[in-house]
Fold this sequence. Notes:
The chain has helices at 6-13, 47-50, 59-69, 84-96, 110-125, 142-146, 151-154, 172-176, 201-214, 236-239, 265-268, 287-307, 309-319, 342-354, 379-394; strands at 26-30, 33-36, 41-44, 103-107, 130-133, 164-167, 184-187, 190-191, 197-198, 217-221, 245-248, 259-263, 325-331, 334-339, 357-358, 368-371. The protein is α/β, with parallel strands linked by helices. The protein folds into 2 domains: 3-57 and 306-394, Alpha-Beta Complex (Aspartate Aminotransferase, domain 1); 59-304, Aspartate Aminotransferase, domain 2.
Amino acid sequence: xxxxxxxxxxxxxxxxxxxxxxxxxxxxxxxxxxxxxxxxxxxxxxxxxxxxxxxxxxxxxxxxxxxxxxxxxxxxxxxxxxxxxxxxxxxxxxxxxxxxxxxxxxxxxxxxxxxxxxxxxxxxxxxxxxxxxxxxxxxxxxxxxxxxxxxxxxxxxxxxxxxxxxxxxxxxxxxxxxxxxxxxxxxxxxxxxxxxxxxxxxxxxxxxxxxxxxxxxxxxxxxxxxxxxxxxxxxxxxxxxxxxxxxxxxxxxxxxxxxxxxxxxxxxxxxxxxxxxxxxxxxxxxxxxxxxxxxxxxxxxxxxxxxxxxxxxxxxxxxxxxxxxxxxxxxxxxxxxxxxxxxxxxxxxxxxxxxxxxxxxxxxxxxxxxxxxxxxxxxxxxxxxxxxxxxxxxx
Length: 395
Ligand code: PMP
């Protein structure tokens, strides 16, 4: 191949997902900042879409990775060999989860964890229908895509899984009127891609009661809300419910690829019998990823109080006041500034990049600015960031 610059190579030889990639080339990332080749730094206001919640290259995560690298990397497909990093991760999660969520299936991504959760619900209940929420996002694989109501993104891939019933989040009547009891109700407690839409407590409790009454499993996707982002380790704690299957990803890996679906032993058991190997994954629970993840879970749990997430949310809300900002949605450090138009948002993102802030929009809310920084972002950084945003909106 002829020698061409990285950007040209990226455009020509790496699969493109849109015709307008950001094309920012980052040389290194540390703490709250990304650095390009000229040394210019960018505050990471989105944590690589809710991944780098502990900042980039947290020293304790790096240490855990190095320690594991010196012992072993891949040994065998998931589920056969006892690997201490998997055990340690399960113990770390066990320390911060209610006792009924005591069985852990570690996979490679959020989407794979959703697939596993859906398969588990089908196996446990013997049913095939799912209730999903309009405007939810659960991933890019075909099972996860089946749970997506948005025709623009999912239509081209139909037929997807049958028997998916979409209801408007917060519509308790629609839920109660379901004719057929489903295998599961799947929901995000905060619909992140809708622009951080927070589900009401009444609705989430109604889903819990519906599941209890019909034998459906409650699958809660905390891939974006998990790992401290909303102020508690998991958002479900704030709703006072416990899901039957909890799905994690993104920040779980401390910067390494990790996903997990977590249930009771009684539920999870059915993936190991009749037929056995109910979910097969070669790299799921990779020892280096699990080591990083166990460190990330422990660091998050130990530091959660010191992150002062609720205070930081208040600070963002206080300083993000402008006629072009119609409202700020979300909880904790999973916020969305809904602007007057998509055009304002696109302009703001490019202006912010120029001014050293890396941010983005939302899949279903292209008019909303994504605010999901590392949880350790400082008050000073928040105030400066908001000032830059307001100045850009004034231009
Ligand atoms: N669920 C939610 C709520 C997500 O935000 C995402 C990713 N944006 C996924 C599932 C899918 O995760 P992944 O991209 O790791 O497959």
